[in-house]
Amino acid sequence: MRNVIVCKKCVMPSSRPRVVFDEGGVCNACHHAAKKQGSIDWAAREQEFLRLLDQFRSHSNSWDCVVPWSGGKDSSAIAYRLKHEYGMNPLLVTFSPLLPTEIGISNRRALIESGFDSILIQPNGLVARKLAQRFFHERGNQKVAWDAGVTAAPVRVALAYKIPLIFYAEHGESEYGGRVRSAEAEKMRDFTEVIEHLVGDDPQNWVDEVVKPGDLEVYLYPDRKDLVDSGIRSYYFGYFFPWSSFRNYEYISDKIAFETDPFGRTEGTFTNFDSLDDKTDPLYYYMQFIKFGFGRATRDASRMIQNRQLSREEAIEYILKYDAEFPGRYLKENLEYLELNEGDLHAIVDLHRNSEIWVKENCQWKLRWTIE
Ligand SMILES: [Zn+2]
């Protein structure tokens, strides 16, 4: 059994998939953050960004780039900056949340009304639901198919409309701890790598008695050859500017009527500005806590410590208070959607508890480590 350790600088445990720790017990996301604050020449990166945009900027006001867009603070800040600071004309592409929230709809509307075109892809609701149910049972993750849809949608739209450039937000594996294959991988999204990742989980394997091959079109990533021939290039915005979700939130709420969580904070965490668009997200993050032993508060706190926006002591206080919070606010909607009763849900939760993470003491589940 592996011993889980917690990063000495942030609060991320080593149970996070693919994260790498050094001998001193510091995670690679913290090393990446130190690099962002130290050795990276941001002025040179912005010059590189300007040169890139000059190659692609449309002078006829047609779409010149695609922004995969949830309507959240990060993708909205990127779209806004591209249009208003850099003279680009982005097309926003959204793959519909499973259970959209009012606030997510309202935040999307606010940006569109400020002057953007957007395409909303709404997959077949019956198929989306069947897949969510199946993957919640099998993997404790109702968003497996949704993830495939989100991955495929912007690329499919870029291909269909012959738009040569896509801007993703941040490279998650560098920013939050994970496997960084090469320096280039922090800058450009490699189609081949995306396709390789999908090999074990090709949507074409999801066919069953309910889901037919034709139902899966919306989840399929385009052919590698079509992508190579198209010349489409995908970059991470976070490579060119020091990435911070909190600063994106501050930026976009200054520009449009961006609303935060109406309850003052989001379930499972202390923040109120992140991942607000899907009623199923609190359950998704709770299942991460069950599978990997870190919840939404740990995730948010680690990012904010790395960006010097929160102390480690405050972070620990928040984690002890919120990480294990059961997602009750939208429980009824989630149970209905997944066609479960509460007892079924708890049985599935326990099925996905990992024995490297959890131990049962006096009939109570406890994490195998304490954070200090
Ligand atoms: Zn760390």
Describe what is shown at a glance.
By secondary structure, the chain is mainly α.
Walk me through the structure.
This protein has 372 residues and is mostly helical. The strands form 3 sheets. The chain has a 3-stranded parallel β-sheet with strand order 1-2-3. A two-stranded parallel sheet has the order 4-5. A hairpin with a 2-residue loop joins strand 6 and strand 7. The chain is globular, with a radius of gyration of 21 Å. The relative contact order is 0.15. The mean pLDDT is 94. Bound molecules: zinc ion.
Key traits:
372 residues; mainly alpha; three-stranded parallel β-sheet; two-stranded parallel ribbon; 16 helices; 7 strands; globular; binds zinc ion
Alpha plus pi helix count = 16
Largest sheet: 3 strands, parallel
Which hetero ligands occur in this complex? zinc ion
Described by the principal axes of the CA atoms, the overall outline is globular
Could you estimate the helical fraction of the residues in percent?
40-55%
Radius of gyration: 21 Å
The topology string of helices and strands comes to HHEHEHEHHEHHHEHHHHHHHEE
Low-confidence stretches: none
List the strand order in the largest sheet. Answer: 1-2-3
Query: What class do helices, strands and sheet pairing give?
Result: mainly alpha
Kindly, what is the distance between the CA atoms of the first and last residues, rounded to a whole number of angstroms? 21 Å
| Mean pLDDT figure | 94
